[in-house]
Amino acid sequence: MSATQVIKETGSEIQSESQHLVGEQAMSSTAYLEVKDLKIQASINMPGKAKKFITLVDNISFTLGRGKVLGLIGESGAGKSTIGLASMAYGRGGCEITGGQMLVEGTDILQLSDKEVRSFRGARIGYVAQSAAAAFNPAHRIGEQVIESALAHKLMTRPQATAYADELFGKLGLPDPENFGRRYPHQVSGGQLQRAMTVMALCAKPDLIVFDEPTTALDVTTQIEVLATIKHAIEETGVAALYITHDLAVVAQVADDIMVLRGGSMVEYGTTDQIINKPQQQYTQNLVSVRSIEKDEKPDPVGEPILKVTNIDAAYDGVNKILKDVTLHLHPGQTLSIVGESGSGKSTLARVITGLLPPMGGATVFAGTTLSADLKSRTKEQLRQLQMIYQMADVAMNPRHTIGQIIGRPIEFYFGVKGAEKRRQVVELLDQIELGEEYFDRYPAELSGGQKQRVCIARALAAKPSLIICDEVTSALDPLVADGILQLLMDLQNKHDIAYLFITHDLATVKAISDSIAVMYQGELVRFGKKSTVLSPPFDDYTDMLLSSVPEMQLGWLERILATRKMHAADN
After folding, report:
1. pLDDT, tens digit (0-9, with 9 covering 90-100), for 11-67
2. What pTM was estimated for this model as a whole?
3. N or C: which end of the chain has fewer CB within 10 A?
4. Count of structural domains, the chain
5. What sign results for the dihedral spanned by CA atoms 355, 359, 365, 369?
6. Those residues with Cβ within 8 angstroms of residue 32's Cβ, 6 or more apart along the chain or in another chain
7. Does 276 fall in a domain?
8. CATH no. for residue 432?
């Protein structure tokens, strides 16, 4: 029986035997973290109206024992990250913990002074954020930031902390672990930076770690290794963990119990086996049974491609090539998905196409015209026609601008639309991304990670482009919302003949939306063609490994796939 149990759910109609509430063991003295009736609210300013208070987390209670993992799942805005931050006595901008207790070994940290709370954070409670790019200081080397907490709390000497960090870099599969910490955040891929953040949380050897979507930015091959490392670290150290995610297949590999959240309230709680295999509530059943949309295969396209990339070489330092002789094409109204592990060159190719990174060689032809290698030399119409949705929404929006200003800027810049008509178009886009007019005057800090990404999608759509480069646009979204976004993108594609260059590590998404697929490995194109061809055997070794790495919603899948690979490695 897991030590992680729910104590009670106040004011909810969902109280059933299916939640497996075991009160006596839930109140066991072995619990490290005990949350009682947690309530969190936020205030928002409504134009011409009094300040409005909304409840983000409503009377949530649970306990968590050492060496146990509680998975928090639910759609974007369900309150998962808000609960995770509250476990450190922290409410993000605009949020306030208005009720309940957060007991760490019997001490209510919500009642401690700021100085006392800081002694917990980093030392006894570690945090792995959803967006590593926003969490790292770009002006400092990665290694210095990783060991900062251990040094600040005087838990290790500098040599000890550095040696332990290097050891963790190696365990999480980061390249050249002894020297990795000398790099700056911008010198590594998004997936590598996310793994470095996991090392940062583990370095001080805390008693509790909050994992907030720790594998969201990782490709499926790397995700397996990181999940295995996280699971091993929890078992080896006895650390308690909250694992926040929208991916049920992932959380099924690491969690002992799962709490399903929606709108800040608990929908269902149970063991991982019960939630995955015998969900009781309709919402949980929808999460478990969600099936991605499926795009019918189109006839071979005729006419000229809207995008042709020919013999592209690229590097950030002008010496070490990231892209090596990449050639591919995309036709109007079609979707080309580019897949590959972290660091394979997917996002670098997008930067070359958009003019953010001039190539060392090769050419990019868009709509029959060879594009200037430099963004600044492109025409305003070329900029409008080719838009990009970035992977990390946190760093893609100005935090001082409202959502209305962010989405409205391209409408005014490209079309000269202002005033009431601009607001109408912004609200229409907000409705399309399922946020609504109430988000018009909010700021990015008031939104969840998934909501921020949807705003970035709306901003790109506002320019009415011919081609959109989508860089991991659904990675921060739960399956139900992601399917809605993908369906929206497909509907717009059918209506306006928009082409998508879709960069992703989610192979379920690739199978659902692609017309063609390009597989990249270490900067080279290893497989390219129609979806049916690329996803059909015989496979090259890398594509075979990629396809076999997609997590399955089955208990023990992680252990089985690792055992299979170990056996194959031994045979070879």
Report:
1. 333 333 333 333 333 333 468 899 999 999 987 665 555 667 788 999 999 999 988
2. 0.72
3. C
4. 1
5. positive
6. 64, 65, 66, 104, 105, 207, 208, 240
7. no
8. 3.40.50.300
